[in-house]
Amino acid sequence: MKRSIAFFALAVLIAAGAWAQSFIDNEFYRKSLELKASAEAAFEEGDYDAAADLAAQAQEYAFRSDRYVETMLAKAAADRSLAAARERLAWATSVNAATNWPAEYGRATGELAAADAAYAGEDYGLARRKADAALTALANVSEVLPWPAVYVVRLIPERRDCLWRIAEYPFIYNDPSKWPVIYEANKKTFRDPGNPNLIFPGQKLVIPSIAGEERRGTFDPKLSYGVFPKQ
């Protein structure tokens, strides 16, 4: 009976050992191999109690090796995600995303802080997920914002806003001749719909897309916009 138990323990161990060959070399795996060899020697000598005990110990070390390798693989994956997230956040910082994309930037910094905390606590799976979430938050961040969809007429004494000057702004149409597009889109809201020259500070003007471009939000002079290509 003891021989059968020892034989079964060794069979399980040998199968586990074959599977473990693909594992990264580590102290637990080496100890498992050492105990496995001792178990086999005890079995050959007929010391089945010792063989069964050594086989059980070897199997426990194989399990420890398994857990160790899983932890190291998770740590390596977290390292890659954290490095990518930190690089992306550094780039976002360099292009003033904190101002231009405050919601996305704030979410990313929060997720990365959570990732760092999880990593410090050796929860590598959570650290990777949080770092990936930071990357996702910054996925649509660009160096410049989409061109504005709304322009609020400003009081600029030295260069009074008018439709052709507004159309000329690089972030609008970069072309003063496009002023009729703005006029047609907004004349129903004018105090005098028949007079395109009568606009006032604080008046909101819708800026239509003229080339399929994305336009979003209201123009903010503190933000960075790209130069609209001339049509």
Describe the overall structure.
With 231 residues, the chain is mostly helical. The protein has 3 domains: 2-71; 76-137, no CATH class; 144-231, Membrane-bound Lytic Murein Transglycosylase D, Chain A (Roll), CATH 3.10.350. Helices cover 58% and strands 3% of the residues. The chain has a two-stranded antiparallel ribbon with strand order 1-2. It starts with a helix and ends in a 25-residue tail after the last strand. Mean pLDDT is 85; it is low at 1-23.
What is the structure about, briefly put?
By secondary structure, this protein is an all-alpha fold. It has helices at 2-20, 27-44, 48-94, 97-100, 102-120, 124-137, 163-168, 179-186, and strands spanning 150-152, 204-206. The protein is rod-shaped and about 110 Å long.
Question: Could you list some keywords that capture this structure?
Answer:
231 residues, mainly alpha, 3 domains, two-stranded antiparallel ribbon, 8 helices, rod-shaped
Distance between the termini: 90 Å
* Average of pLDDT: 85
Low-confidence stretches: 1-23
Rg computed from alpha carbons, rounded to a whole number of angstroms: 34 Å
- Strand portion, in percent? under 5%
Percent of residues in helices: 55-70%
CATH architecture assignment of the largest domain: Roll
Main beta-sheet annotation: 2 strands, antiparallel
Number of domains: 3
General shape: rod-shaped
The CATH topology of the largest domain turns out to be Membrane-bound Lytic Murein Transglycosylase D, Chain A
